[in-house]
Amino acid sequence: MAFDIDKYTANSEPVTWTDLDLESFETNPLPESSLRVLRYMCDVEYHTVCYLRDLLTTPSHKEPEVGSFMTMWNREEFWHGEALAAVLGKHGITVDFDQLKASRLKLGWKDRLDPIKQSLLGGLVGHDFVAVHMAWGAANEWSANAAYLRMARQENHPVLAELLKRIAAQETKHVAFYASQARDRLEKSKKAQVIARFALSKFWAPVGSTISPDSEVTHVMGHLFAGAEGRKLIRSIDSHIAKLPGMQGLTIVESALDKRGISGEGEGTPDALPLEETVAVETQTA
Amino acid sequence: MTFDVREFARTARGSHRGELDLESLTAADVDADAARLIRTMRDLERHTMERMRNVLVTATHKDARVTAFLTTWAFEKFWIADALDAVLEATGHDLTSPAGARRRSRVERVERRGPIARAIAGNIAGPELVAAHVTTGLIDEWVTTAAYRRLGEIAPAVRAVADLIIELKERHILFLAEDAQRRLADSARARKLSLKEVKRSAWPLGAIDRSAEDRSSFEAVVFGGKDGAARAAEIADRIAALPGLGAAAPIVAARLVP
């Protein structure tokens, strides 16, 4: 399915929340455990610009469509960070630019070497690297979308649920872009399929795991996806990934959870609000 | 006063096609020189992802205030490029810049270095390199603003478009000027790194990826003749007023004029 980049860029807007009653968090605050999840999500969204950096060192950005998408995507994700920061702010948790800077400084040498590694890899693989980047992005956006929708259902908080649904709706468009790009490019190149499969199965880890402490990653994954219901969702993400050309049978998200010892049995954090959506199907809604 | 990055992000301006009155434009309103300048400017404005890359592979990406600015700056530049496309479409001019050989000069070799070399150099230079990025960004905005003023002169019919772009750039300049001034005033190392970077940059930033012909035409149209030299001198004066950059001012002026 073709992604209409002109339509997407023309309709790209910051997520809105000024019409939502954020004051409600003062009378009906979120529990500590959920705030940790939101904080993690907020960091990941603000951190998009650093992912963008890594992607820009590969041949991907030279394609005009990809460059246009990245410009809008990076900005939309920045606004997701702002929206989540507004909710955290209502709980007395301040996320400001200085503090983000401090956490980026903590990343140290690994972070400094990343762009070099990515360029070398991009240089070695050449044009097919774009397909790898797109497949990787699709996996990330599918999991982000699922995470937001799952949290919207778990928290008994209509204002939060509405905000998370709005964010997830934008992530659905990102999914559409990455997945349609990945599909087209993987179909055209056997080599790209082999490299993407290798990269995803060997190196993929939940979004945010390179920037957050292990304990936080495990907490967030457990909170969102532990239990039978969570496992069902995770398998649904994996099944979307596995439908990409050459990715049959991959179960990278489920494996990532197993590796962290997150059980697929029991109740986990149950849903409080009924919502129909589960994981974004790849449709063009822009 | 401190520039409010969040306010800038909140009030960023997207597509201009609705507010621009392009219907009345005809091919005669934009001659070949003006069309070429528009295409060159469009290509430069669309160069943001390369600019972002060069900046982000260094310690600059750690500064969340700067990256928040760049996120919105790239968005506004995307739509500036789109507005220039709209002018070319309305006047029936070719949208694609003609392919041509690049200018190959020894001085500019360092500008052509890829992300690996930049990342390594950036790691060695350390966090003060942010100053060099905002300072070169600032000078670039001065240079391109001069180009849009000139565009309004050579093609009065598109002056409204040029003025709109200049207005958008005013906020970019406000942020970059304030940030550059502060960083340069605060640190001798920032001044040293910035001086080096400004001295060796090709203008406008991204010019090295344009054809030699487009660049010569840009220099002739914007900075040629007596008036052009005066425009270059004005930019040099502003550079000279920045802390520690006096020595770079004449070098930039000399590189701007044809």
TrEMBL record, chain A:
Q: Please give the name of this protein.
A: Ferritin-like domain-containing protein
Checking Gene3D superfamilies in the record gives: Ribonucleotide Reductase, subunit A
GO MF annotation, one? oxidoreductase activity
Signal peptide limits = none
Highest taxon above the source species: Bacteria
> Which InterPro entries does this one have?
Ferritin-like_SF, RNR-like
Automatic annotation (TrEMBL), chain B:
Q: Which GO terms describe its molecular function?
A: oxidoreductase activity
What name appears for this protein in its UniProt entry?
Uncharacterized protein
Q: Which domain of life is it from?
A: Bacteria
To which species is this protein native?
Pseudolysinimonas yzui
Gene3D superfamilies, alphabetically? Answer: Ribonucleotide Reductase, subunit A
